[in-house]
Design a protein that fits this description.
A hairpin with a 2-residue loop joins β3 and β4. The protein has a 10-stranded mixed beta sheet with strand order 9-7-5-2-10-1-11-14-15-16, sandwiched between helices. The chain contains 13 helices and 16 strands. With 345 residues, the chain is α/β, with parallel strands linked by helices. It has a single domain, classed as Adenylosuccinate Synthetase, subunit A, domain 1 (Adenylosuccinate Synthetase, Chain A, domain 1). The chain binds inosinic acid and magnesium ion. The site of inosinic acid (IMP) has 21 residues, from α6 and β10.
Length: 345
């Protein structure tokens, strides 16, 4: 069964963030029931999880929280703001099963103020959540960490060790990346990038899980490309065309309108290579093609939709295993049995 071949999965964004990682990780949480779920990155990244008519916009809590037996972790490489963290724990009702690494970084009001008054942050279109300023303090070794705050005491654990214990027992661990490959500090469109490496390797390093322990690297692409803030976006559509194609979206943290472009095979190919993708998820296929909302079976997709997906798959040379057909986390065509079952590694 699948569980045997996917004990440790890392999910990352393949474009500029907002590919629908929250939706995909939310689905995997409910479907695969991981023992542990880890969310990396920080509060500049909003992951939206819709389930049964309810919507959560998460900035700290792992998107797999809907799986009630799952332990939730925020690792050493992550950064949180204490109020954002405590609020989300309440909203998601996950108190008692969410844990913070002793070394997770803490963002304060001072970091936010510093970014607000920074001219370059304005130019690159930073979300101004204080994440870059806090990361720079961490590099200069003056950032306060979770272990320095009394009010966090009950949440503190050695997350790196606990997660590795799950991994070494062969249990299913789901690691959630944040933002997208082209926002990576190293591989993205510098200086129009975020303050960390968003690739699969960078995400794993934030958790403390070594590369040899990972079974599946799932790269998530949306069926079109969006970008918030400044920086290059190849084949960017005019606001009128964005509207006409139905690609209008707003950023979940800042509320800004997202810029948009058609699906970009060249960007996707490079992303798949550098992330070492073993699987690809394609989200919002129902936005690109009409009348396929909430379809859950591959065979029920019209021929032209299947053809488009197969053409993408042929260029990427990686199986497209999950296909998003609606907002709800369960609106997914899951082809893993069919596609991976036949190539059991
Ligand atoms: P910062 O990391 O908040 O300073 O933002 C730097 C750049 O990354 C800006 O262009 C932001 O819009 C973008 N960015 C940061 N986080 C996200 C995200 O979660 N989704 C999409 N764009 C993001
Ligand atoms: Mg987002």
């Amino acid at each position: 069964m699948l569980r045997d071949i996917t004990p440790v999965t890392v999910v990352v964004g393949g474009f500029f963030g907002d590919e629908g990682k929250g939706k995909i990780v939310g689905y995997l949480g409910l479907k695969d029931r991981p023992s542990a779920a880890v969310r990396t990155g920080s509060i500049n990244a909003g992951h939206t999880v819709s389930f049964d008519g309810r919507v959560w916009k998460l900035r700290v809590v792992p998107s797999a929280f809907l799986c009630s037996a799952c332990r939730l972790y925020v690792p050493a490489g992550a950064l949180i703001s204490i109020p954002v963290f405590l609020n989300e724990v309440l909203e998601t009702g996950c108190s008692g099963r969410i844990f913070l690494d002793y070394n997770a970084g803490i963002i304060t009001e001072e970091h936010v103020a510093r970014e607000r008054s920074d001219e370059l942050m304005k130019q690159i279109g930073s979300t101004k959540q204080g994440v870059g300023a806090a990361n720079s303090d961490r590099i200069m070794r003056r950032l306060k960490l979770a272990k320095d705050y009394e009010e966090l005491r009950s949440y503190l654990r050695d997350v790196a060790l606990e997660v590795n214990e799950f991994v070494d027992k062969g249990e299913h661990v789901l690691i959630e990346g944040t933002q997208g490959f082209y926002l990576s500090l190293y591989f993205g469109t510098y200086p129009y990038v975020t303050s960390r490496d968003t690739s699969a390797s960078g995400v794993l390093s934030e958790v403390g899980v070594g590369p040899k322990k990972v079974d599946e690297v799932l790269v998530v692409f949306k069926s079109y490309v969006t970008r918030v803030g400044e920086g290059p976006l190849p084949n960017e559509l005019s606001p009128e065309d964005v509207e006409r194609f139905g690609f209008v979206e707003r950023a979940s943290v800042t509320g800004r309108v997202r810029r948009a472009a058609p699906f970009n095979l060249e960007l996707a190919r490079k992303s798949v290579v550098i992330n070492s993708a073993t699987q690809v998820a394609l989200t919002k296929v129902d936005v690109l093609f009409k009348n396929i909302q909430h379809v859950k079976e591959w065979g029920k997709l019209p021929y032209n939709v299947r053809k488009w997906i197969e053409d993408v798959e042929n260029v990427l040379k990686v199986p497209i295993t999950l296909i998003g057909t609606g907002e709800d986390v369960m609106a997914v065509i899951d082809r893993r049995e069919e596609v991976l079952g036949s190539l059991k590694r």
